Amino acid sequence: MIDPDDEIRLVLPAKHQYLNLTGAAIDALLTRMDCPARASYDVQVALQEICANIVDHAYEDRPGGQIQVTITPRENALEITVRDRGIAFDPDTVIDPPLGQLQERGFGLFFARQMLDGLEYAVDDGENCWRLYKKFEPVGSEVV
């Protein structure tokens, strides 16, 4: 049984090569919480997209940055807080990408919004702060 006080905290260099560590931590935790594979996948993709955007945009041309990730289990849910001290961002200025047209970039925030039950961004005491939230029904509890 997972205790809601059992937070996982990661401090990663703001480099793409370390972002897979977030997925490993989420997978391990959600497996213990009997989370369905699809919900776990959604959370992992959404978090990786947010972190990739932090690397590419918040720390663009600013080496030495860090990303702080706090993963908190809740009852039938997962809450993730991501903090960085890079360049601030206004997610309201990002429009959804044109679906059906070829495009290599610009889907990260769109995917995260689609895959999560909650996604919030704020600047808090000089830090960018993302809050990701995903609800799920434990495996075996689905109504048939």
Jot down its keywords:
alpha+beta; 5 strands; single chain; globular; 144 residues
From the N-terminal CA to the C-terminal CA, the straight-line distance is 25 Å
Classify the secondary structure makeup into a structural class.
alpha+beta
Oligomer: single chain
Number of helices: 3
Order of helices and strands: EHHEEHEE
What percent of the residues sit in helical stretches (DSSP H or I)? 25-40%
Strand arrangement within the widest β-sheet reads 1-2-3-5-4
Uncertain residue ranges: none
* Principal-axes shape call: globular
β-strand amount? 25-35%
Summed over residues and divided by their number, the pLDDT gives a mean of: 86
Computed Rg:
15 Å
Question: What does the largest sheet look like?
Answer: 5 strands, antiparallel
Number of strands: 5
Descriptive account of the structure:
The chain has 144 residues and is α+β, with helices and mostly antiparallel strands. 30% of the residues lie in helices and 27% in strands. It contains 3 helices and 5 strands; from the N terminus they run βααββαββ. The chain has a 5-stranded antiparallel beta sheet with strand order 1-2-3-5-4, with helices on one face. A hairpin with a 2-residue loop joins β4 (118-124) and β5 (127-135). α1 runs antiparallel to α2 (37-58). The radius of gyration is 15 Å and the shape is globular. The mean pLDDT is 86.
